[in-house]
UniProtKB/TrEMBL annotation:
Organism expressing this protein natively: Rhodococcus opacus (Nocardia opaca)
Keyword vocabulary terms for this entry: Plasmid
Protein name: PIN-like domain-containing protein
InterPro entries: PIN_8 (IPR041578)
Domain PIN like residues, every copy: 6-207
Pfam families membership: PIN_8
Source species, domain of life: Bacteria
Length: 214
């Protein structure tokens, strides 16, 4: 699509915290290009959900490599126990265990290096979030971020979303039980419809999820 407006979902913005350094820079570079940036539009609800969740996503990502290391060490421990239980000859047993020790050290070192290189330091994010700073610059033009709907409109849409989820009418009903605020998808959808109707422009909605809209 070479014309029209591009709207981003919150998961696109939050995914920036999960990407490695190189990919994160590549995505931001694309969004910063004039021919792309000038066509971007952010629904109000998307911005709200990004702001609500960015701290948790960044914190969770800061623990990913530690969790991976713990999981791998657990597997190596299990392998070590099986070798010790199965091989009675002490000399043979030591030969079998030797590569496990090397693997343990190699995995720990590599995961530590990858985490240091690709994860944005959580304490730094709390002081000066580089992703938030980059997004603020990208969505800096007037009317590039949707305005908050009137409270009465929000109340009506939230009530409607609850009815739709009971009747299993998309969007959002498939994961409505897994979210604290399941109305978010429907509120975004309403904003997209309003924007498309008001602007008269083609509108592309970009998300990382597979969603049912109709």
């Amino acid at each position: 699509m070479t014309e029209g407006t591009i709207a981003l979902d919150a998961n696109i913005l939050l995914h920036l915290y999960r990407l490695g350094e190189h990919q994160r820079k590549e995505v931001l570079a694309v969004l910063t290009k004039d021919e792309v940036r000038s066509r971007l539009w952010l629904p109000y609800q998307v911005g709200l959900e990004y702001q609500r969740n960015r701290d948790k996503v960044a914190y969770d990502q800061s623990k990913v490599y530690d969790a991976l290391d713990a999981a791998v060490q657990g597997l190596l421990n299990t392998a070590e126990e099986k070798i010790k239980a199965a091989i009675r000859d002490a000399n043979v047993r030591e030969e079998a265990l030797e590569p496990l020790a090397a693997a343990r050290e190699a995995v720990q070192q590599r995961l530590k290096e990858l985490g240091a290189r690709h994860v944005i330091d959580y304490s730094a994010i709390q002081r000066h979030d580089p992703v938030r700073v980059a997004l603020d610059a990208i969505f800096s033009d007037a009317n590039q971020v949707g305005t908050k709907p009137e409270q009465q409109t929000l109340n009506e849409r939230i009530a409607e979303s609850k009815k739709r989820y009971i009747d299993e009418v998309p969007p959002g009903y498939l994961d409505s039980k897994d979210k604290d605020r399941p109305e978010g998808d429907y509120l975004i959808w309403c904003e997209l419809l309003d924007f498309a109707a008001d602007s008269g422009r083609a509108l592309l909605f970009v998300t990382t999820l597979s969603v049912n809209l109709v």
